[in-house]
Structure formats: structure tokens, C-alpha cells
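Now for one record:
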Amino acid sequence: MEWYGKGYIVGTITDITPYMELREKLEQQNRTQREALETANHNLLRMMQQMEEQKAQFAQTTARSMEKEKRYRQRLNHDALTGTYNRRFYEEVVRNNLGPAGIALMDIDDFKICNDTYGHHAGDLALETVAKAIRSCIRETDLLIRYGGDEFLLVLPGIPADYFKVKLEQIRTAVQQTVVPGYPHFRLSLSIGGAMQTLADPMENVVRRADLLMYQAKNHKDAVAVDAQGSRLAAQDDVLKEKPTILLVDDAMMNRMMLASILGGDYRILEAENGKQCLELLREKAGQISLVLLDINMPVMDGFEVLRTMNTNHTIEDVPVIMISSDDSEEAIRKAYELGASDYVSRPFDAKIVYRRVVNTIKLYAKQRRLVQMVSDQIRAREKNTDVLVGVLSQIVEFRNGESGSHVRHIRVITETLLHRLMELTSRYDLTPEQQDDIPLASALHDIGKIGIDEAILNKPGRLTAEEFAVIKTHSMLGAEMLQKTESFADQPLLQTAYEIARWHHERWDGKGYPDGLKGDDIPISAQLVSMADVYDALTSERCYKKAFPHETAVQMITNGACGAFNPLLIQCLLDVQGELKQDILQW
């Protein structure tokens, strides 16, 4: 290598080799660095994509969780039958609301009679129909609450006091004009008590005032009593103090004028020229007419046909009829009484006698209505007390059994759901409305015999030995004996139903159950229903010895016989209501 000018000149090929190797090495390092950088960028991009995906998944999970929570709260605060808010929502939320607002309590007239006459399915339809009619009259911001069995509480925020009564009358009319699907002869009406809530009024006090006014309205039925100014017991004079209404039905105007002159001073008079007009007015003014004075011989429709129609649609049970006619034959009088007339007046008549008979008949029917209401209130109070006592006793059993108190509630809900479907599906089991009420209530005592079983066996987490299982099996007879030894067992249908359930709810359709090895319908239907409800809840609930099975698995196990044989009709009922039961599980 020689010096030339400003640098060196490589003289031979061998002299350039180290330079080329160095250059190649540097280029290799550059390539490695570029590849590492590209890999790092790629990994960073992939990590960012994964983070975005995870972020999206988290957002979806959060949204689903929030939606699930929302649905859960929705179910928790809503009545399953009517879709309105429930008493829980009132206690937790509405009870703390401040005014101004209009507060109304609404009671369905003669709802107990509806249940007893047509059955609980008709009662459920009536409740749904009433709730739908009320919702059609109110805003989305108004709150409709199922406050009791047949009572609704309505909260109308910000409603003007002078419009409050108008709104309640609109609701009353809407309910009166609606028809229960499948029961066209059952007439719906509401007794409504309303009170205005100011900023200073606690909700509880206003509800109490509305309740008192509602009971004043119930003396008339299909009425509205409003305390718009907030005075404690005041009611609108035009509702509670108006004259009773009498419907005069006669084709002769002179006869109607004569009766109106006798009665018009103390009564409000409505008139009809024939039987058809009479029925139209009875339908239009349902709950407002105190008595009908009815002629026999009229065009279009005579008085006897009116009585037959009033019997068919049960109007005769609420509205007394006095026949007034010039036909004083024994046959006509006997026929009138047979068709439900309360009295019979022959023409010509004494004005004072007619007046006194009208007064006495109206008073008699008013007294009967008060007695019916009094008895209904007493029955309601007694049923509530019985329900509370049974609930307390069943909770004691569950506490000792180491299970959650929810088991008893589950059994009752499942039993009632299966029973309703069974009544729709078949007429094989002739159960009275009282029996249909007793079975779900008595189901709470199905395991009462476990009070007499050793806790160490009851709550053993592992598998029971044959000897221990034999001890467990004695609980059914123990429970039956406890119930049978109660002082009032012989004359208390509820205790007798509870006895059937406690003793035989472990029997099976094929005779392989215990304690008596009963087979088929030799097992009381009450025990069959609770047996299926007990098995279903045991499968879908967590126990100290097992995890909970999903709803689908539980239904499959029951239907394929893995839990013993069941009545094929009850299996069909289970399949029919399984969607409803699955929703119940989500709420539990």
C-alpha cells in the first residue's frame, strides 16, 4: 500500500479482503436490526390489536352484565302477572317519593266472588285486564303498582288537583267498559280513593288517606272518592253523598211520572220504556243503580225476560228488582219471585206502601253488601295471618335443615304454576277454589317432619349410609303425625291438605316411593304436585352435597325418569311451563 495524494491506495486483492468482510458484517448487522425492528413493530401492532379486541370484549361483557342486571332489576321490581310495579318497588323506591303528586288506591269490586265463582284463572285474567285498562289512561312517567292481591296503587306526579278526580273517573270508566277475555258476563269495576300529596306530606300518610277514602267508595262500588284538599276523611259530595239511583221501567209514561213523583224527592230517577232499554242502562250505569222498579208487560222485551237476562249475567245479585204490575195473578207473582224479584207490588197501589218497600229493599241490599265486605275483609285478614304463621314454621324447618329459606318460596311458586297449568289441561281432578288456594300454601309444610330428624344426618355433606337414609325417610310420617295431632285437624281443610303433602310427597307414580308405596292416582294430587316441585327445586338449587343443575338438565332428568316416575299429565304440565320456570330461576 502506497501513499498517493490525500490517501492510501490498496495495492493487491488480498489487501481488500478485510475491508469487504467488515462491510459484509456491518450490512448483516443492519439487516438483523431492521428485521428485529420489523418484528418488534409487528408484535406491537398485534398487541395493540389484541388490546382493542380485549377492550371490545370487555365492553360487550360489561354491556351484557348491565343488561342482565337491568333485566334482573326489572323482574325484581315488577309483578309477573300484570307487568305493573310490585309492592317491593313501592317499599324500596316509591315510599320515599316527595310530592306534588296524586295518589290513588284502587280495589277491584267483588274480586273474591270472581275467584270463587269462576276460578283463579278468571281472577288472573281480570287482574291483567284491569291493569291494561288503567295503563291505557296514564302517562309513561306515572307509576302503577300492584299494591295487594286485588289492589293497585297509582302515583301521578305533578297532576293538577282540579284534574285529579277527572283522571280517576276516566280510569273507572275505562275499567267498567272493558271485558275479561272468555268471561263476558263478569263485569269489572273499581272503587277508588284518591288524595293529593304536597311537598310536606310523607308518602305513607297520603297512602293511608287514600286507603280510607277507597273504603268509603266501596260502600257504593264503582265509585271515586277524592280528597283533593288533603283533609283527612273528606270526600267529594257528588260521589259519596249523592242520592241513590232508581231505574223505573214501564212503557206507560203516566206510570213512570207517578212513581217519579213518589220517589223523586229522596232518589235520583232514571227511566226506560222497555226491557231492552233497561238492560242497556244497567250495563251503562253498572254499580250506580240501587234498585229497579220493573213492569211485566212491555213491548220489545217484557219484565220476565229482563229478569232472566239479569240472572244470566249475575246483575240480579247486586241490583234488587221490585216488580210492579196490574197483573196480580198467582202465576205471575210466583214466576217473578222464582226469577229473583225481591218484591211484587200490584196496581193500583198505595204511594206510602210503595215508598216504604223501596226504602226497605235498598237498605236490605246495602246491609248485605256491607256484610259481604266485612266477611271478605275478615277472610283476607285470616288468610294473611295463616300465610304468615305457615311461613314462620316452614322457615324454622329450613333453618334446621341447613337450606336457604328460599326453598319454601320456590316450592310454593312451582307448585302453584304446575297446578294452574293442570287445571287448564284437564278436568280429571275436581279441585274447589279453596283447595286450589290450600295446596300451594300447605306445600310450605312438606318437610315439617324434618324437625324430628337428627341435624347431623340432615346436614351431612357426604353420601348417606343405608341406615342414615332410612332415618331420613321417616320424616314424611313424622310430619303427617304432627299435623294430624293438631287440635283443629278434623275441621281444617288446610291442615288436611298439608297432611297429604307431608306424608305422600315422596311417593312415585309407579309405586316405588315411600312411606306407603302408593301408586298412580292413589297418591293425592296435592302430594303429586309438591313432589315434582320438590324434585325440580332440589335439582336446580345448590345443596351441601351437590352443585345446582341447569334448568334444561333438571327437566330432562325428570322427564326421562332419572328421579323416579311421575304422573304423565304433570310431566306435560312441566314441559308446558318450563319457560316460565326458567325465568323464575334467573330471578332466584
